[in-house]
UniProtKB/TrEMBL annotation:
Record keywords, A-Z: RNA-binding
Keyword field contains RNA-binding: yes
Organism superkingdom: Eukaryota
Segments traversing the membrane: none
InterPro entries xrefs: Nucleotide-bd_a/b_plait_sf (IPR012677), RBD_domain_sf (IPR035979), RBM15B_RRM2 (IPR034535), RBM15B_RRM3 (IPR034536), RRM_dom (IPR000504)
GO molecular function: RNA binding
Domain RRM span(s) in chain numbering: 10-87, 91-165
Protein name from the UniProt record: RNA binding motif protein 15B
Pfam families the UniProt entry points to: RRM_1
Length: 196
């Protein structure tokens, strides 16, 4: 399961492909398992091995579904081999495996220990959230350490992977706490609502 596999990513490596395989053919075979953001096909010179490809899904759950369902299946004329590709670290994480009672506060509490959080895109009841960190180091630490973390009960374990950095589903759901009240006494221009 992806929550137990530190190598699991939203990127899949597809090997043993026919040399003439097309992007359309790969998308047709895999798109039923989730949204494919990118397809890259590599065709080594003749005699240097078969073609292979990398498919980037929108999230880890989609990639995992495709990996389980398609492993050993025939695409074109060959039975394919599937593994996880390398992660592409970003400052934004996809967090899956959330229970219906997971709160925004619980996510913030568990994930802000790795560094400063810019935003959390989450609506209570969703099974996943997006967490945008200020730094890449914070996102990488959280991705490595929170995978498999029991949040919302021992039967629920988090699935965590890097996500496309620039998207926002729900604008500004989480903001760091406002400044303490005594900051209100500062001169105009430094009050709440302005950046320091």
């Amino acid at each position: 399961m992806p929550e137990d596999d530190q190598r699991a990513t939203r990127n899949l490596f597809i090997g043993n492909l026919d040399h003439n395989v097309s992007e359309v053919e790969l998308r047709r075979a895999f798109e039923k398992y989730g949204i494919i953001e990118e397809v890259v096909i590599k065709r080594p010179a003749r005699g240097q091995g078969g073609a292979y490809a990398f498919l980037k899904f929108q999230n880890l759950d989609m990639a995992h579904r495709a990996k389980v369902a398609m492993s050993g299946r025939v695409v074109g004329r060959n039975p394919i081999k599937i593994g996880y590709g390398k992660a592409n670290p970003t400052t934004r994480l996809w967090v899956g495996g959330l229970g219906p009672s997971t709160s925004l506060a619980a996510l913030a509490r568990e994930f802000d220990r790795f560094g400063s959080i810019r935003t959390i895109d989450y609506v209570k009841g969703d099974s996943f959230a997006y967490i945008q960190y200020e730094s890449l180091d914070a996102a990488q630490a959280a991705c490595a350490q929170m995978r498999g973390f029991p949040l919302g009960g021992p039967e629920r374990r988090l699935r965590v992977d890097f996500a496309k950095a620039e998207e926002t589903r729900y604008p500004q759901q989480y903001q760091p706490a406002p400044l303490p009240m005594h900051y209100e006494l500062l001169a105009d221009g430094y009050g709440r609502g302005r950046s320091l």
